[in-house]
Amino acid sequence: QSALTQPASVSGSPGQSITISCTGTSSDVGSYNLVSWYQQHPGKAPKLMIYEVSKRPSGVSNRFSGSKSGNTASLTISGLQAEDEADYYCCSYAGSSTPYVFGTGTKVTVL
Amino acid sequence: EVQLVQSGAEVKKPGESLKISCKGSGYSFTSYWIGWVRQMPGKGLEWMGIIYPGDSDTRYSPSFQGQVTISADKSISTAYLQWSSLKASDTAMYYCARRPAGGFSFDIWGQGTMVTVSS
Predict the structure, then answer these.
(1) Which of A6, A56, B4, B38 would be a feasible disulfide site paired with A103, CB 3.0-4.6 Å?
(2) Backbone phi, then psi, for A79, in 5-degree steps?
(3) Which among B60, B106, B110 is the nearest to A48, CB-wise?
């Protein structure tokens, strides 16, 4: 199972919108609407931001949104804020025998 | 408060064995899967495996199958990750995370356990 492909870095100015892509295969992202996104600040544990492609857990800002088309999922952060500077990882369900695969991770920088 | 509390940092020598723990509280431990995730220094997240404490159903990533053992003791709401013979390449932060039985994402994470393997 290969890691899902994400851009290494994405940057934007405060208030702008950015989108992070997550490309998998027809065996993972393309087969299931079960992509989740995690935010990780330096030295901290990951935090769930989006689940089942586009659903937000309670307490997560509505500036975060998710979508999927074919084998590629995307996370959009609108109204970029300094606190959004972190690493972001996608994760897809990939079937019952080897359930999960993470993305390679994207470092978001707020300019 | 729902939380997962992991055991403390470990420093081990190559060839030694190790078992780290993840204790759940504030929820029904047997109704959620517990997954383990590795993060090597400066690197990304890697999914290692997952266990359902209710019946000990366990799945492993092919990359970690045979390299580690995942187990759980539901009587004390604790999941474990263990190695029989550590290698320097096992040096990493290890996280446990909770997944609802009917869900597919990890909603609560432990604080992480740093494992350092060095001679």
Answers:
(1) A6
(2) 55, 50
(3) B106
Instruction: Determine the average pLDDT of the residues in B106-118.
Output: 97
Contact A99 B97 (CB under 8 A): no
Q: What residues have CB less than 8 Å from A44, skipping those under 6 apart?
A: none
pLDDT of residue B103: 84
Nearest-5° angle of CA B60, CA B115, CA A38? Answer: 60
Q: Does A95 touch chain B (CB under 8 A)?
A: no
User: A7 at the B interface (CB within 8 A)?
Assistant: no
Task: Considering only the beta carbons, identify the residue of A1, A46, A48 that sits closest to B45.
Answer: A46
pLDDT in tens, B89-104: 999 999 999 998 888 9
User: In this predicted structure, what is the pLDDT of residue A99?
Assistant: 84
Rg (CA), chain B: 14
| Nearest alpha carbon to residue B89 among B21, B20, B15, B3 | B15
